[in-house]
Amino acid sequence: MAGTGGTFLRRFLPSIFGCLFLIYFVEYIPTASAEGHCIWYGVCTNSTSKQKNCLYNGTAQRIQEGDSIKILQEYCPDILAGGFSCCDEGQLKNFKAGIGTALGLLARCPSCVDNFLKHLCDMTCSPHQSDFLSPKKIAQFNSTHKMVVEVDYHLGATYMNTTFDSCKSVQMPSTNQLALDLMCGQSYSCTPQRWFDFMGDVELPPVPFQINYISGDEPTDGFTPNNPPTRSCKDGLPGQPGCSCLDCDDACPPPAPAPPPPRPFSFHGADGYAVVMAIVFVIFTTLFLSGVYCCNAQENVIGVASENNQEMASNPPPAGWAATSADSPEEATFFEKLGAETETRLEDFFQWWGTAMASRPLVVLFFGFCFVVALGFGAHFMIMTTNPVELWASPTSRSRLEREYFDSHFEPFYRTEMLIISSKGLPNLEYTSSDGAVWEFGPVFNSTFLLKVLDLQNRIMALGSENTTRISDICFAPLSSPFTGPVTAQQCAVQSVWGWYENDPDQVTDYLDDNEYLEKIITCSKNPYMCLSVWGGPVLPGVALGGFLAPGEPLSKASRFHRANALILTFLVDNKHDTEKLTPALQWEEEFIKFMKNYTATEMPEYMDIAYTSERSIEDELKRGSKSDVYTILVSYFIMFAYIAISLGRFTSCSRLLIDSKVTLGLGGVLIVLASVLCSVGIFGYFGVSATLIIVEVIPFLVLAVGVDNIFILVQTAQRDPRRPDETIEQHIGRTLGQVGPSMFLTSVSESVCFFLGALSDMPAVRAFALYAGAALLVDFLLQVTCFVALFALDTRRQLSNRYDILCCVSGSKDSDAREAGDGALYNLFRYVYVPFLMKREVRASVMIIFFAWLCSSVAVAPHIEIGLDQELSMPQDSFQLKYFQHLNQYLNIGPPVYFVVTDHEGLDYSDRDVQNLMCGTRYCKNDSVAMQLYSAYRTPSVSYIAQPPNGWLDDFFDWSSTPTCCKQFPSNDSFCPNDNSVPPCQSCNISLVGAEQRPDAQDFKHYVPFFLQDNPTTTCVKAGHAAYGHAVNFKTNGTQKLVGATYYQGYHSVLKTSYDYYSALRAARSISADITETLNRNLQAAGKNVTLNVFPYSVFYVFYEQYLTMWPDTLKSMGISVLSIFLVTFILMGFDLFSALVVVITITMIVVNLGGLMYWWGISLNAVSLVNLVMAVGIAVEFCSHLVHTFSVSGGGSRVQRASYSLCTMGSSVLSGITLTKFGGIVVLAAANSQIFQVRA
């Protein structure tokens, strides 16, 4: 974590300020006429107390030879120039030691350091101290000396303000913070006065005495404020450049104005799409009604008879169904003759095929069974994908490739185990702070609530045993190293508010009076680096607290953290690119989830509510969800089967009820559907194509819809066209299949080709669905024209033999009173009620207008369909993960980390000064370096979605290498030694700093970068890089030398709540990376480096949201491919009948567009799940449209109205009973499923 770079800070802050003021005062009470002189000289100290300065009332002393001159020359040249000072060598050595840490924080900006040192130099050594310093309290040190315990320092307001301005932007990259955030006490409200007051606060343990900074430019009480000259941070020291933009706002060019938000398409304030479609509707309706009522078109007759005396024409002569013959049809065209020939051959083939299948039904069923078993056995090899990444992101997608690059070079992002703990029924708290301000705290800061949270935290940390995995075996411990021994639980990075109390309940229970324990919440939330946790790093308030931001409010240092209404516990676990190494982590996570389920069910207090998750939970819940709905699916199938069994039968009398029923036939049809799904799974199991839960949940219903439709068409056609006197059962079934087989073939091929082409989609879930659906529909058609035809023949023989359904061995008595079965209620309803009403000219015109209005309204709203998928929808309703997603959206107030990765290249050498300047962000770096461009992006967070400036290890390495107390090595072998190692003693590295930049030379750079990345930050070395950058650099080996390869810069996105926020953040990060890549490569070429690099962004959520960047193009592509394939198949199989193919395609397109309108009105977003449903809707729409159009095309003559009426009565009633009513009963049951995806579909 970037925040872990503050490990040293519990001790370092006091070191900065305590050592800065280890100077002695001389007892002196100035008067208005007194000349400036010393108030201290020499050191008064002992080994048991804080160092104090000895009082001295006299003139300045001549500067001593030796180290005094060297120190003054380095830090206080103005004092040295005068030749006299009020400090001796001991004071100057303390001075040098004390300012080391402060300089380490501020050294990135020498102008700031120069300004900062001036008031310290004057306070320590100025010959005129008495002009601005006054000892306020003194105490006896020994019999001969006194010491100062409090002092007033009159310091110019101009100096304080300009020094503050020059230092306020200096970065601390390893913590993603500003240096003054660490040095001011209150990071969000630091001012010049607060900064200086904090430095003089005696409450800080190492500060030896109270320093009262009195600000003002005018003389007060005889004192003249010290007002040393200063310079702006953009102005460098003589001969040096000013501070960089990263550390000096004044050096930054003004940020480019944010691009205006895209203007919605509008027309005089109204929605543009609505206006356009309204105009289209009015024009079309006017023209249409004019054509209907003003034109009396004649029914032209163009026809050509097939060998079966059927017609294949757009306008055949009136004949057949309620029609009279035409006298002289016009000559048929070539395509019409070709269509008739195609239809004739298909009819002949399917008639022969049906007769053959019905003649040997048992043989057909046996071979069909063998076929199903052979293909179905492949299901044994099926690979079920539940990994969310593999479900939603293509292996070849950019996000997956970049994720793989990141994981293989830097190890994957940490595994996260999280609890979101909110309160129920607890009131807010009031607390009056030490400064008199009244604070209203959220209810989660109730002491009883806090103590219960600590107990829960400790129990989680204690999970496991010696024989199982413990958290110390798997946790992320950023400050552990081979030199610190085995990892302990205390070293594990845990983001918890109790980290501010060092996990010590006494720090709460001992301060319950007047809620005094809340003072720490105020202090630590203002500056978490003042309250380091037991594991050594800061607990960030935005991570440990939740629910404190108002809707739309950005996270900032001034956020009202004390108003939080949720506590968040985050346990970080190391992740591994090699999944075989994750077994211990998976075991601990499983135990963690079991513990939390039991705790929330049996032990959770009534005033507490907990949502929890582990890294493995999503995948586990997806697996469980696929099993939990099995019974619901089975009930749905049973209802559909029962409907099929009842509807297929045509009952003539009660005595023949069990004879005329079709339970066995219906069951056989359903089994054929399931067998086709099994075969599809088996086929792709053999080929190793992964399956998804969508396949298990969706395809059976799709294939059942199509399969049942064909079953109804085949059976009802045979029932309506009874066996002729000279026909056998086999010939009758063959003739029936000859009539409907071409239509079944047309729809099945159309749907299969549609789905197979849909597999061109890049989305794995859509691709797998399309492949499995296409194969299942194809197998279903083959089994229907073989096994179902054979089963139909057997059932017909049974019925004619008066044997009972199911109990086929039992014969019933022949009913002499049996009446001939009618056409069925639904058929009669269509023929005598619905069709006559629909075919009235006024009704037809109204229907066209109504549905065109629906189409226009859908087109108008379709562009406004939201893109995205709420994570909650993927979880079962009874899942703990669903509750976690809901609480995460409600309470989480921090954005996810984002990494900008610079890829590796063999020709890139980071030890090269030119390359460094293209990467770093401090002085001497190019203004368009990688770090500079990332910082520029951070300055416009509303556009970039970057909330914290991404950190770069290179700048901190330069500071680390120039700090004498940082780099250490063992003298015996010159290997790395921690900077705080004392046994055995280590020696400082002799790093050669060269050039104006004072950076390590090429050889030392290569040698000491690994030292920097192993070194933990301490009070003496704040820039050590192990905690912040231990994973940020990937090394490549060149012989025995390690060279820097790929590396990354880490920042944080702004708070993201909706799908739009997430994919917009991804789009912005990619735009930033593209600009950096282009600039970096251009600069490399200009510098003579023949290398090409790539910079790409990475965050854990990118793989899930990348699809939404191209969701509309992908949807239109999938729909376009599906519709085009249907058009081509229909056009070819219907004998190149362009009119029929266009009718089918236009109708299907209207259905899909209208579904888009319903998605908008019902609030359904566009995503991979809804895209699968749209593709499925296209398949089902083919069943409705193609059967009707085919029947219309081959109907036996008549006007268009008569042929449409005949088609709608005969085929429409079968389609309605086969698809609509069957699916309606089954889908209603799905509304009770646990899976929310089922419920949305239902």
TrEMBL record:
Coiled coil: none annotated. It catalyses: cholesterol(in) = cholesterol(out). InterPro entries: HMGCR/SNAP/NPC1-like_SSD (IPR053958), NPC1-like (IPR004765), NPC1_MLD (IPR053956), NPC1_N (IPR032190), SSD (IPR000731). Keywords: Cholesterol metabolism, Disulfide bond, Glycoprotein, Lipid metabolism, Lipid transport, Membrane, Signal, Steroid metabolism, Sterol metabolism, Transmembrane, Transmembrane helix, Transport. PROSITE patterns: SSD. Its main location: membrane. The chain crosses the membrane at residues 12-29, 272-295, 362-383, 630-651, 663-687, 693-715, 736-758, 770-794, 845-865, 1121-1153, 1159-1182. Residues 629-794 form the SSD domain. It is found in: Endomembrane system. It is a multi-pass membrane protein. NCBIfam families: 2A060601 (TIGR00917). Belongs to the patched family. This is NPC intracellular cholesterol transporter 1 isoform X1. It comes from Bicyclus anynana. The lineage of its organism: Eukaryota, Metazoa, Ecdysozoa, Arthropoda, Hexapoda.
